[in-house]
Amino acid sequence: MIHTDHLILRPWLDSDLDALTALNDDPAIYQWLAGPFTREMNAASIQRQQGFQAEHGFCYWAVVEKASGQLIGMAGLMPVTFDAGFLPAVEIGWRLSSAFQGKGYATEAAKAALAHGFGPAGLDEIVSFTVPHNKASRAVMERIGLRHEPAMDFDHPRLPEGHPLRRHVFYRVRRGATS
């Protein structure tokens, strides 16, 4: 588990399925994810994250707000599993319930994940990407020290041509480049 001032980042439990399903059913969330996830997709996501945790020592952890004890999202690190010109790579990412956005929690969780990546996980670089108009995520990327590399922007191979979320902007940070 990783503790920050306001958050706990912890491995996923099977009992988190209802909270994850509610999170991924929020239109403010799934607008960036090509639609809502079914309960089965969320169960598979928990299993996948548990597998990444067991294999790599990191995943997109469950994010719990300390004050309320509520699971409010996910944040962490995950190996990129699709074919791209920047492989091999580990991505940093976050997703918070809309009720908890705008409180600085995404940045707080991302900083903790970045510190874990360059600390215990021993990574040399971490990447991130999103659609160009996801300004909130791009701002978090920049606040934690990632830099946009326009020459590396790409069309996401898991989305069909013409899909409005296919184009992605690419960010990267190397060990020692963050403050």
TrEMBL record:
Gene Ontology molecular-function annotations: acyltransferase activity, transferring groups other than amino-acyl groups
Domain N-acetyltransferase stretches: 7-166
Pfam families associated with the record: Acetyltransf_3 (PF13302)
Coiled coil location: none
TM annotation in the entry: none
InterPro entries referenced in this protein's UniProt entry, alphabetically: Acyl_CoA_acyltransferase, GNAT_dom, N-acetyltransferase
Name the UniProt record assigns to this protein: N-acetyltransferase domain-containing protein
Species classification: Bacteria, Pseudomonadati, Pseudomonadota, Alphaproteobacteria, Rhodospirillales
